Amino acid sequence: MSKTKMIIPIVLLFLAEIVICLLLFGKMGDLRQDTVKINEVVQSVEDNFGDTSKYSNALEYTVIGEDGTVLFRTSQKTSDTLNEAIKNNDTVIGIKTEKSGEHVTVLILNDLKDRLLKKRNTAMLTIAVVSVLQFAVLAVFFMAVRKKLIKPFEKMKAFAERIACGDLDIPLERDRGH
Prior knowledge:
Blueprint: H1 3-26, H2 35-47, E1 61-64, E2 70-73, H3 82-87, E3 91-96, E4 103-108, H4 112-164
Antiparallel strand pairs: 1-2, 1-4, 3-4
Helix pairs in contact: 1-4
């Protein structure tokens, strides 16, 4: 196997790793809350207050009344008090409902930690897979180098040692590649 044939897969693998890392870590800027979905949730609560079947499921959120009671919740992961929502960096929006004029607060879950954890796990898995591939390619490369370069020199060294010891009857073995 020629040097070029061995180096090309190694270079391609390193380039692929760089591209994958750029793709994975380049999208870190899209971790903000989706304002369109937030507006959809707030509008659905405002327009359909009291009829929870018409509330939007675009995000995970809790609706609490003026007295702090939970009126609606999409998930158990969401905050159920204003204080808890502030601690968790959740989006807090106070609204006045159109039908009843009641003031309610919508606590929209900030799932940034979950999204970052998911991205981190994906990146770690990708890096692990690429590292294993790199190790395999490098192992094949070193086995080929050993076969094509090191073993012939070892044979020549053994031949030279025999000649140095005075054994001149041994022929030098040659193969096609050398």
